[in-house]
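User: What would this chain look like folded?
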Amino acid sequence: MMIDFKLDPKSGVPFYRQIIDQIRYGVATGSLNVGEQLPTVRALAVQLKVNLNTVSKAYRELEIQKVLETQQGTGTFIGSLDVQISLEERQNKLAGICTEYLSIAASYGFSIDEMINELKQRQGGDK
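Assistant: Here's the prediction, encoded as structure tokens.
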């Protein structure tokens, strides 16, 4: 599978919204390509352990936005719409991830310097 969906129940963001965001980011960054087939609603719901309606709602909204195209009897595919993620949206997403990361790490007593060093090691420390 081309996208590894990760749902975070603690984020406060509804699951269907997390699915939408991950597909949009996947298309915007090129990890999902035009014509690529997505799992069926049922298969994704089982994989993510969520209600069918959750996945169905996400797919429907993405179809309305022309990000996805569903072909009856064949499946759901990435549409030809060029998805752009604004700089502001990217910044907000990164800020949210960092806030969550910092609060979790701080609850275990890690300092910001320790976290920065760990991140640098994970990317090869080349910055």
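Residues 87-107 form the longest helix (21 residues). If you want, I can go into more detail on any region.
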